[in-house]
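ok here's cysteine synthase:
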Amino acid sequence: MPTYRGVDGHIGNTPLIRLNKLSELTGCEILGKAEYMNPGGSVKDRAAWGIITDAEEKGLLKPGQTIVEGTAGNTGIGLTVIGAARGHKSVIVIPETQAPEKILLLRTLGAEVRPVPAKPYKDPGNYNHIARRLAEENDWFWANQFDNTANRQAHYVTTGPEIWQQTEGTVDAFVASVGTGGTLAGTTQYLKEKKPGVLSVCADPYGAAMWSWFTQGNTDTDDGDSIAEGIGQGRVTKNVEAAAVDAAYRIDDQTALTIVNQLLREEGIFVGLSSGINVGGAVRLAKERGPGQTIVTILCDSGHKYQSKLFNHAWLAENGLDPNRAIESILA
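and the structure:
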């Protein structure tokens, strides 16, 4: 008899898409894992699934218990969608600087959304600390995506094996930016166990600390800022601690935007800026190591949540970004 599953049984197994133009320009196979095809629309569905199922199995998340999390949006969406499918309500604490489309979508999906001022992690008013306190005060389950290693484990058991199978073991490198660190750490742990020579590469936006951590062993470098949402970590999380990273690159917003627009206009791939930063890292690696490599990266989410910013020419002009720059410029 056939077996049917609810939406929570359909996380992962996303397509691996060849990025044709950049593959041709670099002489490499540059492949993007289409994580926007997950039920909640992003790679964070995997972390949400891993955190929820792990907590249920351990008795930390009880039937019908509310889930609370501090998130830039996508993890909250994943928790809300998967949580609803498993009988849980969600309360999402989100920095008010995030794209308004995310807040609207979360509320539409049924989450209780609490926007708060954006504050650094060291500040008690940081959205993660607020979520933790709400869990303690209300007997809710705090997902704690940054330091809950069920996040990393979800990528070890799903993303890594999928890439290995889809490339038939020919993968030479995996490139990903760091939000919590789960995607990069868990995926490359699996791939390196299968093939020790696989390179693990962090693509980091300006102003984040992971480039500094992986290249200099500290988080002290303060070298600018980025409009990217959901990535750009300032501290070494529990998920990042285990990441065996071979190289790290700074990718600027203009490079990422140029990639995002080329993918949309010429290849029908509609993604956000974090995907552009990931692909920018893959292109940088291709340029440094030369033709013939198979490089896999993550297409994190759809661009529909960023239309008021990333695809708004007036907003881009205010931030000094040009949506019409030619893709060849990033290879110069």
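+1. The chain is about 40% helix and 15% strand.
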